Amino acid sequence: MAKITFHNITKKFGDETVIPTMNMEIKDGSFTVLVGPSGCGKSTTLRMIAGLEKQSSGDIFIGDRCVNDISAGKRDVAMVFQNYALYPTMTVWGNIEFGLKNRKIPKYERKQLIEEITEIVGLTPYLHKKPQKLSGGQRQRVALARAMVKKPEVFILDEPLSNLDAKLRHQMRAELVQLHQRLGTTFVYVTHDQVEAMSMADEIVLLDKGEVQQIAAPLTMYDYPKNLFTAQFIGTPPMNIIDTTMLPAATWKKSIPTKIGFRPEKIMLAAQPSRLHFSLPCTVLARETLGTEIIYQLDTFAGTLFAKTFQQPIINSKNLYLTVKEEDIYSFKKNNSCIAPPKGVEREIKGIVQ
Amino acid sequence: MRIHQLFLKLLNVTSLVLIILIFATPFVWMAVTSVKSLSETITFPPVWIPETIRFENFTLAWESGPFFRYLVNSLIVTFSILILQFLTIVPAAYAFARYQFFADRTLFALTMITLMIPTQLIFLPVYLQFSSWGILDTHLALILPFAANAFGIFMLRQSFKQVPEELLEAARLDQASEWKIIYKIMVPMAKPTIITLLLFSFITHWNDYFWPLVMTTSDSSRTLPVGIAALTNVEGGVAWHIMMAGNMILVVPILIMFFFAQRQIIRAFVYTGVK
Amino acid sequence: MNHLWMTLRPYTMIAPALLVFLLFFIYPIGYMVYLSFHDWNFISPDKNFVGMNNYRALYDHPEFLQSVENTVIFTLLSVVITTVIALLLALWINKPTKLYGFVQGAIFSPHIISLVSIAMLWMWLMDPQYGLLNWLLELFGLPQSEWLASPDTALYSLVIVAIWKSVGFNTLILIAGLQSIPSYLYEAAELDQSSTFTSFLKITLPLISPTLFFLVIINVISSFQVFETIDIMTQGGPLNSTSTLVYFIYEYGFRFFQLGYASAAGVVLLIVLSIFTVLYFLLVSRRVHYQ
In the list A222, A285, B275, C28, which could disulfide-bond B125, CB 3.0-4.6 Å? Predict the structure, then answer.
């Protein structure tokens, strides 16, 4: 078990800078998810931890050990790859055993370890099959078993669920979380899917363009985004953002923020505007009914917005007013940093906008 | 309409049979001749079914020269070439497929140029070179120039390149050394390509006549094809039945091999030709 | 230390193969070019520099010119006829049934047989007195031929053997090419009511043409190297009518030990082969672009 520390890490591929400067700490025993849009540097970060990629400058520590000059195999890190990377010419047993053999672990001990692990992941009946004969979920388990059997200090998972169908992915998410609780090892998990990040992480590291945008627990990140990027990346549909230049100046009491934002589920739809809260006239463009929740796409003079309602009757009329309470409104400064309610906008916005 | 179709079908089948005959008859004729008597070979019109089947022709052919020696030489030379090619091709293909290093493209181009240099072009200078090394008329002279195979490097490099990078990374995280990655992961994965290549090399060098002809002068290092070709110069005129019997010894094993591994052999040649 | 090894490792891995290529392919080419400017008979200790003399002598040597002519005729005939027959066969027997598979195997079989056996077998088939071919000609009421025994027919007889040997290989490569043409193209053409012939002209031929060019070039290159059949069947005769470039080099190098002279002929062959090799590589790089 170990924490992971990045100290002034930079990474360049030729002339292209992928990671300008990165400082962060991944907590010991945490389930940390690196998330961000494609090309944000999350996989590079992960591969630097594993030692598959070498940083251009800076130091990486696993525990208290500086691993700059330690090769991938010796870092005490195990990895689960996106496409599983199972050795196709070896059986399940051979796949799990390969790393142990290379570490010169004696035979009887290997046997014991493999039997123990395969029992946990439920692979015992498939030990002598080749990976091609297994289903996606089973391959995933082999990949996990192969990583687990080494009893590493750090577990690294690179989009491990992206090749599974939706149902299995859901199931595996829960299994991975349970596995983490059971092992108590540091997990570093990469995904581009913020839902996956929200549902699994103890802590989310949100990256964009090679820079850490925010490190926080999922709900903290949801409620208190640090900046515009975080606010928009986390949550489906994303937070509605309105450029304040689109709104009449009369709306503001004191200083004017550059942008304001509110989550779709905070919107209330009604036939009448509210006198007390922030209100805009809107037209329903489209409606998605997803069972308990309904998503409306709304057209307003300030742009297209999304609203989400829970367990409420479908609204059929076209022309409505949307209303958001002041305490649900986030405001953004010119540098895109975010001030979350209640200390944010508070009562700066008055009444309706006609 | 019906009759028209039937006629076309008949024509098609007849033509197919004709094609098969064009390619099979010479071999059949070889087999028939190989069990004839001398007098039966010099009659016109030719005899299709010999009166008695003379298997002793094979013994005669076999004993007309040190054919056991030739056979042993052929086996030594061919298998030495196969083993050496395997040992040189695999690491070279891996390096070209997986590493970036100074002058890698130049060195690869150099390898590819060799592919286009036929032995018929370089036998003279190589002969002089071997003569100064004192290895003319030895197995070494027949083996060394073919200890590597540019074509094999090219093909195996292609197939090594197709192995996903993730797999190598997984192996590195499993603390596998590069050598272990090669022989535990890469070679097993490229097994079909390697078998194809070895099959191709085996047939090429087993059949080779030109190189042993120019590099050997004595029976101690001559190979089977050279020995068989020498049957044309048997004293006392041309003995077609003995010559054909000798050639049967050379041809039948290959034809049997072809019968059982037709798919792989065709693949070996067509694949190596197309790529 | 570790870093040094990382740098050296790829070189050590390619070194054995590269050593073989350098020693037995690249260096000999250079040595041959060097020899071609010298006069040497292998026994005498000195090699005399003679400049372009060997080349001039070649140019005036009727036997050399004849062997060049023979090589060109042999190549031209065998390549053109082989390719045409192979294309027709490929279109015809490119079917997945067992019978056609058997035919494919049958026509391919000569390709894996030693040229020694093929040469001796055809010598026997072409025997003017007792040969099967003359018997067949007689059977169909045709005039018999002297085959290899006459300078008028010997070269053409060798062409026949060359075609018989390589047509199967060529056919199978073309079949592989045909099979890589996606079938939906033909389906689309059929929906457009294109005739079989139009489909061939507009779909098959353009798409198979890279394979066809490729085949022509490798056939040309291998025809220039023909040796076995000549050495066994005719030894260049009768009256030098079947001597080719390679056979000329072999004779002057190995029988007459005029090493400089033979090397000069070798350089001529090298130049011809280089031209086709360059063509080949240009083609290969084009093909890569297609995909």
Answer: C28
Considering chain B, what percentage of its residues have pLDDT values greater than 90? Answer: 42
Which of the four pLDDT bands, split at 50, 70 and 90, describes residue B73?
very high
Do A213 and A250 have their domain in common? no
- Relative to beta strand A303-310, strand A293-300 is antiparallel
Give chain B positions within 8 Å (CB) of A102. Answer: 174-177, 180
In a domain, B33, yes or no: no
Of C14, C20, C25, the CB nearest to B107: C14
Percentage of residues in chain A with pLDDT exceeding 70? 94
CATH number at residue A43: 3.40.50.300
Residue from B167, B169, B174, B195 whose CB has the most chain A CBs within 10 Å, to mutate? B174
Query: Does C59 lie at the interface with B, CB-CB under 8 angstroms?
Result: no
Reported residue count of chain C is: 291
End position of a domain, from candidates A194, A213, A231: A231
Confidence of residue C291 (pLDDT cuts 50, 70, 90): very low
State residue A151's pLDDT score: 87
Average pLDDT score over chain A: 86
Place of tokens 């003569």: B131
Contact B95 C232 (CB under 8 A): no
CB contact under 8 A, C221 and B269: no
Chain B residues whose beta carbon lies within 8 Å of the beta carbon of residue A88: 189
Chain segment C104-162, per-residue pLDDT in tens: 889 999 988 999 999 999 998 998 888 889 888 888 888 888 888 889 899 999 999 99
Where among A190, A208, A231 does a domain terminate?
A: A231
Picking from C111, C115, C270, the nearest residue to B269 by CB comes out as C111
In chain A, residues with a C-beta closer than 8 Å to the C-beta of B170 are 79, 81, 85-87, 146
What are the two backbone dihedrals, phi and then psi, of residue A9, each rounded to the nearest 5 degrees? -80, 135
Ordered alpha helix ranges (H), chain B: 2-34, 38-41, 56-63, 67-98, 104-115, 119-133, 139-143, 150-161, 165-173, 178-180, 187-189, 191-207, 210-215, 224-229, 240-260, 262-274
Phi first, then psi, for residue C280 (nearest 5°) are -60, -45
- CA gap B209, C26 in Å, rounded: 22
Chain B residues with CB inside 8 Å of A86's CB?
170
Number of compact structural domains in chain A: 2
**Of B113, B187, B118, B122, which is closest to residue B150 (Cα–Cα)?**
B113
Q: Which domain holds residue C171?
A: 62-284
Look at chain C and report how many structural domains it folds into: 1
> Which residue of chain A comes nearest to B174, CA vs CA?
A99
In angstroms, the separation between the Cα of residue B182 and the nearest Cα of chain A is 12
Write out pLDDT tens, residues A283-301.
888 888 888 888 999 998 8
Q: Is the residue at B113 inside a domain?
A: yes
What is the Cα–Cα distance from A126 to A130, expressed in whole angstroms? 9
pLDDT digits (tens, 9 = 90+) for A108-120: 999 999 998 888 8
Q: What is the mean pLDDT of residues B212-241?
A: 85
